[in-house]
Design brief:
This protein is an alpha/beta fold and 175 residues long. It has one domain: Rossmann fold (3-Layer(aba) Sandwich). 58% of the residues lie in helices and 14% in strands. It is built from 7 helices and 5 strands; from the N terminus they run E-H-E-H-H-E-H-E-H-H-E-H. Strands 2-3-1-4-5 form a 5-stranded parallel beta sheet, sandwiched between helices. Helix 1 packs across helix 7. The chain is globular, with a radius of gyration of 15 Å.
Length: 175
């Protein structure tokens, strides 16, 4: 069974969609950021504080490499996971990659009270999100088999679309 890998910016709904997919499909769900926090015993902002973004990205790359070896899982990745080419190759080769796209406006609304987002601890979160999206959107698209907008579609619609696409993808792979 192929993996389902969710990529996209912070606040796109990767973890929420991933959990719902896992329940519906009976597949194990992993969130790479959560797994890093579990293994290190500290939250992402603490890792950023002590190791910087570069240190965090090394941990993230190792975690993605490990998780992508598991068969039949759903993986929600961190928003910056696509920055490293090795991650993009690993994600693309490990299953069906779905880019959950969302607007900066929606990101701001969904992350407004979340202090666990070190890249948003800035004077102008909107400008930061816009800058991140300019760099990352082409990379999300590079790895994606399917692009879905989480601004417009309701959760049930997103889940049904992903399941239909996943089943179609798996049946073609088996043929």
């Amino acid at each position: 069974m192929s993996n389902i890998i969710l990529v996209g910016p912070m606040g796109a709904g990767k973890s929420t969609v991933g959990r719902h997919l896992g329940e519906r499909l009976g597949m194990r769900f992993f969130d790479s950021d959560h797994e890093i926090e579990q293994r290190t015993g500290v939250n992402i902002p603490t890792i950023f504080e002590y190791e910087g973004e570069a240190g965090f990205r090394l941990r993230e790359a190792a975690m993605i490499k490990e998780l992508c070896q598991y068969p039949g899982i759903i993986l929600a990745t961190g928003g910056g996971s696509v920055l490293r080419e090795e991650n993009r190759v690993c994600l693309k080769n490990s299953g069906l990659v779905i880019y959950l796209k969302t607007s900066v406006k929606t990101q701001l609304r969904r992350t407004a009270r979340d202090r666990n987002r070190p890249l948003l601890q800035t004077e102008d979160p909107r400008a930061r999100l816009e800058a991140l999206l300019r760099v990352r959107d082409p990379l999300y698209r590079e790895v994606a088999d399917l692009v879905l907008n989480t601004d417009r579609d309701h959760m049930r619609t997103l889940i049904r679309t992903i399941i239909r696409y996943y089943r179609q993808h798996n049946s073609l792979a088996e043929a």
